[in-house]
Design a protein that fits this description.
The complex is a heterodimer of chains A (511) and B (271). With 511 residues, chain A is an alpha+beta fold. In chain A, 31% of the residues lie in helices and 9% in strands. The relative contact order of chain A is 0.09. The relative contact order of chain B is 0.13. Classes of the chains: A alpha+beta (511), B mainly alpha (271). Chain A: It comes from Actinomortierella ambigua.
C-alpha cells in the first residue's frame, strides 16, 4: 500500500500541487449533495485496472484503490453499519458485490459531461467528471448557488455604516445607542463594549456574550446583526435589532398588571427561548425583567448575554456570584460551585411572579435578606425537601428561624391552582426538583383558560428608547471579574458573609 | 452581505476567490512560501499548546483561527509569532480553558528560540522590555484576529464525528486505525482543509486514509462515505492534502517569525 506514496517523485511535486489546486477549485461544497437514488444501484464503468500513467497522486490513489478493490472485492465483509436504514441496506448488499463498482446514479451525471469527458470512467462523482472548461463552469455555478449555505470569512465592518441617533442607556457592560443603518435605514441598537482597562486582552465575558448571541438564534432572543468596529481597536459595537421596550421599564409605567392571557404569552415565549439556550448548553445566568425586551408586536426578546456561558458535562467550577440578587437561586446564595440550568429556571419563577403582581417577587437588600425573604415566602428547606442542603458552604450561616409554611398563595390570591403549581415548581429549593424549561412549556397552566393572548393582540406603548432619559432603577448583576482571563477560578472569593465581597453583593444603580 | 452569512453553527469556509488570491500571494509570497509560513505557525501553536497543557480542542481551534486569519490578512503585515500567540490566547478563551499571559509569552519565546536554534537556557526577564513587547503583541493580535474574522470565532471540530464514524464502521478496537486517524486530524490542521471542508467530510477522509494504510477493507457497495454524505472526490482530496505534509521537511530555522525578519527573508528567497 505504501508504495503508492513512494511513487511520488520530486518532479511530480509541482504537477501534483497544480492538480491539487485544480481539485480544490472544483471541489463540491454541498454537504447535501443530493443523492437520492444512490441506493438503486446502477453500476457504471469504474475500473481501469493498471490504468495509464496518471500524473497526479490523487489519480494514483484512485488507481490503487481500484486495483486493490478488484482483487479483494469478493472478500469484502459486511460491516455492521447500523446508523440508518439506508446504511443497513448498504451493508446488506455488500456481499453480493463481486467486483468493486462505484454507484453513480444516472440522474446525477450531468448529461453534457458524461458524454463529453473521456475520463469519466475514472471518477465516481459527477462533479469531478472532467477537468474541462464545462465542468469548471458548472462547478462555479453550483458553488455560487451553494455558497450561501456556509458562512464565509469576512471582516468586521466599520461603525461608520451606522448613524448614531441617541444614547439609550448605560449598563455595567457598556453604553447602548440607538442608530440608523445608513444603507437600509433600519433602526438598530448599538451596544458599545467597555474595553478600557483590559490587561488580559479581550474580556472572556464579552467573548461569551458575542459568541452565545451569535449561536443562539431564536424568535425570542434578541437578534444580533453583526459586530462592527470603530477607529481604534478598543471600540467594538454589537449591532442588534432595536426593540422598543424592556419589561422592567414598561411595567413600572403600567397602571395595572398584565392580564393572565398576556402573562401566559410572555411566559411561553420566555420559556421557549430558555429551552433553546439550555438545549444548546448555554446558561443565561442573568434573566430578569430588565433584560427582557418587548417589541410593539407583543414579542419578548431575551437580551444581555453578558453573563451567559456554555457549560458541559462534567461540569467545571463556575463563577459564584452570578445573577442579579433578586433573581438569584438559593443554591447560588448558599455558595454551591456546581450549578445547572436550574438557576435560570429560578429566575424565570421570579419573573413569573413579577409579571402577575407587577412588583418584584423578592426584592432583597442583601444576600442574607434575600435568603430570609425566600424562606419567609416559601418555607424553610430541610434535608428532606432539599437533600444536601445542609452541606452547602454557607448553609450553617442561614438565619435561625423556623418557618415551614409556603405562603405563596397569600401573595397570589387570584392565581389559579395550576398557575400556583407552576410557580412553586419553578421556585423549588432543590435544583434537582426544579422544573425544566421543556417541562414548564407543557404545564397545564398554559392549556387552561384563559388561553394565551395572540402577540398581535397586545397593546402597544410609546417607546422610551427614542428619548434620552434615565431608566427605572433596578439592581444589576454582580460585576464579573472583567479582564481576568480566568474569572471562573476566582469564584471562591464571592460569598454570602464574606466581607471582602460585600461591595459586589449590594445594589448597583443604573446610571 | 455580512450580516446573515456570518451567523451560523457551521464553520466559515473560503470562497474560491479567497482561496485563489490570498492576501499574502497578492503581497508577493509564492504559494510554497505561504504554505511554509502557515505550517510553521501551526507547528508553533501545537507545540505551545502541548507545553501549556491545553486541551487538543483549544490547539485545534487556535490553528484554525490562525489559518482563517491569513486568508484575511497578509503575512507581510502580521508576524507569524504574534498571530500564533493571539490565536492561542483567543482559542483558550473560546474553549473555556484560559491560559495565563505570562505562561504563553514564556512558552512562545522558548519555542521561537528553539526554532532558530538559539540557546534557550535564559528565560525572559520577569518585567523586561521584551516580555512587555510580546505581551502587547499578543493582545493586539487577538483583537486583530477578532476584527478580521468578524468575531466569528466559532469552530466546529471533527474529532467527535470521527469517533462516531469509527464506531459505525466497527473500527474502534483496531490497533492502529483510531490513533492514526486522530493523528491525521491533528496534522491536517496544518493544511487548509479545515477552511475548505466541513468537519464530517474531513472525518470521513481521515478514517478512509487510516483504513487504507492499515489494509482494512470497508464497505464499498454502496461506498460507506456516500452513506455518510461525503463524496469520494472530497475524501481523496483531503487525504492527498494531509499526505503531502509528509513529503517536505519544513525549513523551520530559516523562516521568519517576526515581522522585521520577513522582508530580508523574502529578498533572500528571491535570489
Amino acid at each position: 500500500m505504501d508504495s503508492k506514496w513512494a511513487r511520488l517523485s520530486d518532479d511530480e511535486d509541482d504537477r501534483q500541487r497544480k492538480r491539487r489546486k485544480e481539485k480544490h477549485e472544483r471541489k463540491s461544497r454541498e454537504a447535501s449533495h443530493s443523492r437520492e437514488g444512490s441506493h438503486t444501484p446502477q453500476p457504471s464503468l469504474r475500473l481501469e485496472s493498471g490504468g495509464g500513467r496518471e500524473e497526479s497522486k490523487l489519480r494514483m490513489v484512485m488507481d490503487a484503490r481500484g486495483a486493490a478493490g478488484g482483487r479483494r472485492g469478493a472478500s469484502y465483509q459486511a460491516a455492521s453499519v447500523t446508523t440508518s436504514p439506508a446504511a443497513t441496506a448498504a451493508a446488506a448488499t455488500l456481499n453480493t458485490a463481486g467486483t468493486t463498482t462505484t454507484l453513480v446514479p444516472p440522474a446525477l451525471q450531468p448529461p453534457s459531461l458524461s458524454s463529453s469527458s473521456p475520463s469519466a470512467p475514472l471518477s465516481s462523482s459527477s462533479s469531478s467528471a472532467a477537468a474541462g472548461s464545462t465542468s469548471s463552469a458548472l462547478y462555479t455555478v453550483r458553488r455560487a448557488a451553494s455558497s450561501s449555505q456556509h458562512p464565509v470569512l469576512s471582516q468586521c465592518r466599520s461603525v461608520e455604516n451606522y448613524e448614531k441617533l441617541n444614547r439609550i442607556s448605560e449598563g455595567t457592560y457598556g453604553v447602548v445607542y440607538r442608530a440608523r443603518d445608513r444603507e437600509t435605514g433600519d433602526i438598530v441598537a448599538l451596544k458599545k463594549l467597555k474595553l478600557d482597562q483590559e490587561k488580559n486582552g479581550f474580556p472572556i465575558t464579552s467573548l461569551r456574550e458575542i459568541y452565545t448571541l451569535l449561536l443562539a438564534k431564536h424568535p425570542h432572543i434578541v437578534n444580533v446583526r453583526e459586530i462592527v468596529v470603530g477607529d481604534t481597536l478598543t471600540q467594538i459595537f454589537i449591532v442588534m435589532d432595536f426593540i422598543e421596550h424592556d419589561l422592567k421599564e414598561l411595567m413600572s409605567e403600567m397602571p395595572q398588571p398584565f392580564l393572565q392571557s398576556e402573562v401566559k404569552t410572555l411566559m411561553l415565549q420566555l420559556l421557549s427561548a430558555t429551552e433553546l439556550l439550555h438545549e444548546n448548553w448555554i446558561l443565561h445566568r442573568d434573566l430578569k425583567t430588565s433584560n427582557l425586551l418587548l417589541n410593539n408586536r407583543g414579542e419578548i426578546k431575551v437580551a444581555d448575554f453578558g453573563l451567559a456561558r456554555r457549560y458541559g458535562e462534567p461540569q467545571g467550577v463556575m463563577t459564584q456570584p452570578v445573577v442579579t440578587l433578586w433573581y438569584r437561586a438559593p443554591e447560588l446564595l448558599l455558595g454551591s460551585k456546581h450549578y445547572t440550568t436550574a438557576v435560570d429556571m429560578w429566575s424565570i419563577g421570579c419573573i413569573f411572579g413579577e409579571l402577575v403582581n407587577n412588583e418584584p417577587l423578592m426584592p432583597g437588600r442583601g444576600e442574607a435578606d434575600q435568603l430570609e425573604r425566600m424562606f419567609k415566602l416559601l418555607g424553610m428547606p430541610t434535608e428532606t425537601t432539599w437533600p444536601g442542603f445542609s452541606k452547602l458552604p454557607f448553609a450553617h450561616h442561614v438565619p435561625k428561624f423556623y418557618q415551614p409554611n409556603n405562603n405563596l398563595r397569600s401573595r397570589f390570591p387570584y392565581l389559579t391552582e395550576n398557575g400556583l403549581d407552576l410557580m412553586n415548581r419553578m421556585l423549588a429549593f432543590d435544583p434537582a426538583k426544579r422544573i425544566t424549561a421543556e417541562e414548564a412549556l407543557h404545564h397545564p397552566y398554559f392549556s387552561e383558560g384563559p388561553a394565551p393572548k395572540h402577540p398581535s393582540m397586545f397593546p402597544t406603548w410609546p417607546s422610551k428608547g427614542e428619548r434620552t432619559g434615565k431608566r427605572a432603577t433596578s439592581p444589576s448583576a454582580p460585576v464579573a471579574h472583567h479582564g481576568q482571563g480566568d474569572d471562573d477560578e476566582l469564584g471562591a472569593g464571592g460569598g454570602l458573609f464574606n466581607v471582602a465581597s460585600q461591595e459586589s453583593t449590594g445594589f448597583r444603580l443604573r446610571v | 452581505m455580512a450580516a446573515e452569512s456570518k451567523l451560523s453553527l457551521q464553520n466559515a469556509l473560503l470562497t474560491l476567490e479567497q482561496l485563489q488570491h490570498t492576501p499574502s500571494m497578492q503581497d508577493g509570497f509564492t504559494e510554497q512560501q505561504e504554505d511554509d509560513m502557515r505550517q510553521m505557525g501551526c507547528h508553533l501553536i501545537q507545540s505551545a499548546g502541548i507545553l501549556l497543557k491545553l486541551p487538543q480542542v483549544a490547539m485545534a481551534t487556535a490553528q484554525i483561527l490562525f489559518q482563517r486569519f491569513f486568508y484575511q490578512a497578509s503575512l507581510r503585515k502580521f508576524a507569524v509569532r504574534d498571530i500564533s500567540m493571539g490565536s492561542i490566547f483567543l482559542a483558550a478563551k473560546v474553549e473555556e480553558c484560559p491560559c495565563r499571559m505570562r505562561d504563553l509569552v514564556n512558552v512562545v519565546d522558548y519555542l521561537c528560540k528553539t526554532f532558530k536554534r538559539l540557546p534557550t537556557i535564559e528565560p525572559l526577564a520577569l518585567y523586561g522590555h521584551e516580555f512587555y513587547e510580546m505581551k502587547n503583541a499578543a493582545v493586539i493580535a487577538e483583537m486583530q484576529i477578532l476584527k478580521k474574522l468578524g468575531f466569528n470565532v466559532h469552530v466546529q471540530l471533527p474529532y467527535g464525528i470521527m469517533v462516531n464514524y469509527l464506531k459505525v464502521l466497527n473500527l474502534t478496537d483496531h490497533p492502529t486505525i483510531p490513533q492514526r486517524a486522530w493523528g491525521y486530524l491533528n496534522d491536517g490542521l496544518r493544511t487548509n482543509v479545515y477552511i475548505c471542508y466541513q468537519p464530517p467530510t474531513i472525518a470521513c477522509s481521515v478514517v478512509w486514509l487510516a483504513a487504507r494504510e492499515a489494509g482494512v477493507p470497508l464497505p464499498t457497495n454502496p461506498p460507506w462515505w456516500e452513506v455518510l454524505d461525503a463524496s469520494l472526490e472530497d475524501v481523496e482530496n483531503i487525504a492527498g492534502h494531509i499526505k503531502t505534509l509528509y513529503y517536505r521537511s519544513l525549513p523551520i530555522s530559516t523562516l521568519p517569525l517576526r515581522i522585521e525578519q520577513v522582508e530580508p527573508w523574502l529578498v533572500s528567497q528571491g535570489q
